[in-house]
Amino acid sequence: MAAAKGTCPRRGPTVAGVRRSWAVMWVDTGGIQAWEAGYGALDHSGRFLRAGTGTVHLTWGGEQAGPVCVTGEAHRSRPPALKGWTRSGELSFRSRTGVVEFFGDGGELLGDVTVGGPGRYRLRAYVRSGAQPEVLIMAWPLKR
């Protein structure tokens, strides 16, 4: 994991005024997830993005275990779409607690990707394949 930290890119924010978090996560299952306090597992059925009550799963597949570079961005409004990624997707979800933190199979946490507390959010995820996968998660509140 220490060697992986040195190889993960540290890009600047996609737009100004965004809160960012960064982590290297150990992944055995080709995906990461977020479970809000008081909620549990979701059957993600191998879909790229899936949300349930208090849960979000991002699954890009692959059976090989290893480190993944993950960046989270909490936006106040819809960010621009990005190009140059292998795969991307979006979904809407409701945050019951106002704190959504993704984690890998090794338990490493990515900081909260929400702003504005409990409510409805839109989440966009990007994955770049390679020897060491890279993930970007962007979230923003929907108008109430």
Concise structural overview:
With 144 residues, the protein is mainly β. It contains 1 helix and 9 strands. The strands form 2 sheets. A 5-stranded mixed beta sheet has the order 1-5-9-8-6, with no helix packed on it.
Individual helix count: 1
Helical content class:
under 10%
Q: Residue-averaged pLDDT, rounded?
A: 87
Low-confidence stretches: none
> Which strand order do you get reading across the main beta sheet?
1-5-9-8-6
Residues in β-strands, percent: 35-45%
Total beta-strand segments: 9
Oligomer: single chain
* Termini Cα gap: 41 Å
Q: What structural class do helix, strand and pairing data support? A: mainly beta
Q: How large, in whole angstroms, is the Cα Rg?
A: 14 Å
Major sheet size, sense and barrel closure: 5 strands, mixed
Order of helices and strands: HEEEEEEEEE
In one word, what is the shape?
A: globular
